[in-house]
Design goal:
By secondary structure, the protein is an alpha+beta fold. Helix content is 68%, strand content 14%. It is built from nine helices and eight strands. The protein has a four-stranded antiparallel sheet with strand order 2-5-7-8, with no helix packed on it. Helix 1 packs parallel to helix 5 (192-226), helix 2 (37-47) packs across helix 4 and helix 6 packs antiparallel against helix 8 (326-392). The longest helix is centred in the middle third of the chain and has 67 residues, at 120-186. The protein is elongated.
Length: 437
């Protein structure tokens, strides 16, 4: 008695669930814009805060390189002074009170050029160039991170759309089974329990549609946010997503990732920068040779007439004998940083190889899963057809039909999941390698 009551309540609740699904669909019935994969990637790259930071890092590194190059150029300064004093003043040279002009004007141009700096400028050029290369490599790595993230949102929305279609096909199957049980019930070949069980399956299928609609809405909203829109966005058809060859063997891809992936290239550039920093720190042990000069004008009135002129030219040689261990500390710190950078580079190569191998395994597994899921769907479809025929002639029971329906639904879900698992695994491999496959 209790079981029949719960089945009846569940059947009545199905009407409410179906109405809620329609409400959600009508509430979100406004036209949803569609976006293609390439456009989604372009928009994501333009609005990504991560890419903006990467671009800023490249710009800062380029400014550092320009500053290092500018150290080869001379510096120039222009100056002007104006002074005013009392007409009578004390002359310290003779101890008398003297009178004269109270005003003084002077102008000067001065320049300075470092002739030899122990190679520091050249080392700084190498270091800043390596920093710029490292920033560009990190930007490339970040770019592929944004691309694979966008593809995840894009394909997730496509996956949820297909899963919604699977859920809707489940309703059609449940309604077909309900029609069969009602027909058999009219001729007395089916029990009331058969009808109630098929109604319960219809209730569950409607709930599955509701869940799929909510999941699709969330996935489309996530895609909209990724491309810079505060509303759901539907992914356009990406074309054929069937498995295809990679154009290289697994070992070739492993070697490529180990030597040319964006993460490895970034680590290589960082090591180069650290090595250049060591060389720059060591130049502090060498002397400096400089050249400076200037030209000066002075007058007692604000006029360029009758100016007093003078010039100077100076050569300088400096060598720090002892600077309280600053040089030693600089070289030691730069050497430690170089050692860490080399270890990071080695680990980046190993990580790239490991991640590539994992992506290849995931790709192969997903490809095999697609074949298995296709076979399972074909078997489940035939099984449901046979079980329904057996039920119509009274050989099978309704529970067999419902079990076969659920098996077919799961097989369809598994096929959708396997297809998109393959696509996402391929996208992850492309992000590791830094190129399209």
């Amino acid at each position: 008695m209790n079981n029949k009551l719960w089945i009846t309540l569940g059947a009545l609740g199905a009407l409410g669930l179906g109405g809620l699904a329609l409400d959600i669909e009508s509430a979100s019935g406004q036209e949803i814009p569609t976006i293609g994969l390439e456009e989604a990637i372009d928009r994501s790259l333009l609005r990504s805060p991560i890419m903006a930071q990467a671009d800023q890092a490249v710009g800062n590194a380029a400014q550092g390189y320009r500053g290092a190059w500018g150290q080869y150029l001379p510096s120039a300064n222009a100056s002007s002074t104006f002074g005013k004093r009392s007409t009578e003043r004390f002359d310290a040279n003779n101890g008398n009170i003297v009178s004269g002009s109270a005003n003084s004007y002077s102008y000067a141009l001065n320049g300075n050029l470092e002739l030899f700096d122990g190679g520091e400028r050249r080392k700084e050029m190498n270091r800043t160039r390596a920093n710029m290369n490292a920033a560009e490599a990190r930007r490339s790595d970040q770019r592929w991170s944004v691309i694979v993230q966008t593809k995840n949102f894009f394909y997730t929305a496509l996956r949820q759309a297909e899963l919604l279609e699977v859920a809707r096909s489940r309703i059609a199957q449940a309604e077909e089974s309900l029609g069969i049980t009602r027909t058999r019930a009219l001729v007395g070949a089916a029990t009331r329990s058969d009808t109630l069980r098929t109604k319960l399956e219809l209730v569950n299928s409607r709930k599955a549609v509701l869940d799929a609609e909510v999941a699709l809405r969330a996935a489309q909203f996530s895609l909209g946010r990724q491309v810079g829109l505060g509303r759901p966005v539907a992914p356009g058809s990406p074309g054929d997503l069937s498995p295809r060859g990679l154009g290289a063997t697994d070992e070739e891809l492993l070697l490529e990732a180990e030597g040319l992936s964006p993460a490895v290239m970034s680590a290589v550039a960082a090591t180069s920068a650290a090595s250049a920093a060591v060389g720059s720190a060591k130049t502090q042990w060498l002397p400096r040779v400089g050249l400076s000069g200037g030209y000066n004008w002075s007058n007692t009135v604000a006029s360029f007439q009758d100016l007093t002129r003078s010039w100077n030219l100076n050569f300088s040689l400096t060598y720090p004998l002892f600077n309280r261990f600053t040089r030693e500390s600089g070289v030691a710190n730069a050497s430690y940083a170089q050692r860490v950078a080399r270890m990071t580079e080695d680990d980046a190569r190993l990580a790239a190889r490991q991640e590539t191998d994992a992506a290849l395994r995931n790709l192969g597994s997903a490809e095999e899963s697609i074949a298995i899921a296709e076979e399972a769907q074909a078997v489940a479809d035939e099984d449901l057809r046979v079980v329904r025929e057996r039920y119509q002639v009274g050989v099978a029971i309704i529970l067999d039909v419902i079990t076969s329906q659920v098996a077919l639904d799961q097989a369809r879900v598994d096929l959708v999941e396997a297809r998109y698992d393959y696509v996402l695994a391929r996208a992850a491999l492309e992000a590791i390698l830094g190129r399209e496959l």
